[in-house]
Amino acid sequence: MIKFIIKHFVKDYENVDNLKVRERYGVLAGVLGIICNSVLFVLKLVIGWLMGSIAIISDAFNNLSDMGSSIISIISTRLSNQKPDKEHPFGHGRIEYVASLIVAFMIIFVSIELFRNSLDKIINPVEVTFDWILFGILCASILVKVWMFIYNRYIGKKINSSVANATATDSRNDVVSTSIVILSLVIGHYVQFPVDGIMGLIVSILIFISGIDIAKGTISTLLGNPPSKETVEKIQSVVRAGKGIIGTHDLMVHDYGPGRIFSSIHAEVPDDVNIVEVHEVIDAIEEKVYDEMGITLTIHMDPISLNNSEVIDATKVVLDTVHAIDPNTSIHDFRMVHGDKQINLIFDLVVPYNITEKETELIKKGISDNLMKIDKRYRAVMKIEHQMYEGEE
What we know:
Blueprint: H1 2-9, H2 19-51, H3 54-80, H4 95-123, H5 132-159, H6 162-188, H7 195-223, H8 229-240, E1 247-255, E2 261-270, H9 275-293, E3 295-304, H10 309-325, E4 330-338, E5 343-351, H11 357-374, E6 378-386
Parallel strand pairs: 2-3, 5-6
Antiparallel strand pairs: 1-2, 4-5
Helix pairs in contact: 2-3, 2-5, 3-4, 3-6, 3-7, 4-7, 5-6, 6-7, 8-9, 10-11
């Protein structure tokens, strides 16, 4: 059904890399959310009031917060699509992440209020009036939330939207919470203790956990998540396939919102090649990465000596020494500088991303000591770098 709706209401719906198309998807998801949640809020509020159930009323106000989330989704989708300006040269894509955080805080706030009201119902229980017609309507509302989960998850994956994904998660939790409310009505019809208040308490806790999970994920994204392993491998493979490229290092990926990803990488090239020719290769690689991945890539060239036998031999000595100390480390940007009484071996030492400062110092000392044993003139001058991503070369 959602695919049918998308075809009729999203112009050029297949071109999901286009920011305008992404905006149309986001607005559609928000409008559908407002319609569904407003209907559910009114129905559940009326049913809860008629049946005297705090659990149903709690679930109703959860739908009200969801409606607010849909409004925020529409606003954020439009704002995030604004063009870059002087104050925001990389665009406004992260507004979607901020919107997800606002949604999370709204969910948390609603859960706290529902917890307080449910606790009051446990202390001061009120008899719940059971009605099969109202009960059936409540069951039907679950189907609406299941559909909302499906379409939000579909759109979230389709356009890589954190807001739609957060809404999908919330809809899934609503299915669970409404099911618990229905269970409370059935049990409460046969027992005397305050099942309604207890179930309302459970619903509020589930809503709270949902809000915390969304907030944690969004904050992590805002702070800067590592790219996926597939993204890292794809960028490295495309760059290394370029003519004259020997190797790569120092890959960085910066996410400024969906469709606004910037990356940089160092490409190692022979120090005796034609700079103009290599520059043309690098331009072609940057264009290919953008066309295939939608990532704006900047490549820095690092010259590597392939004909100086002394430098080549020294590089191998250093690399063997480094791997003997810790096989998970690597080096790049190697240079060799002769002095009167010593030879400086200058290089960047890349250590595992999760290594401690003390362990790093021990590795540095081990490398320096072992190199001096090989040749007393050797002095290791190391700049420490940490792997940006687990498993990075």
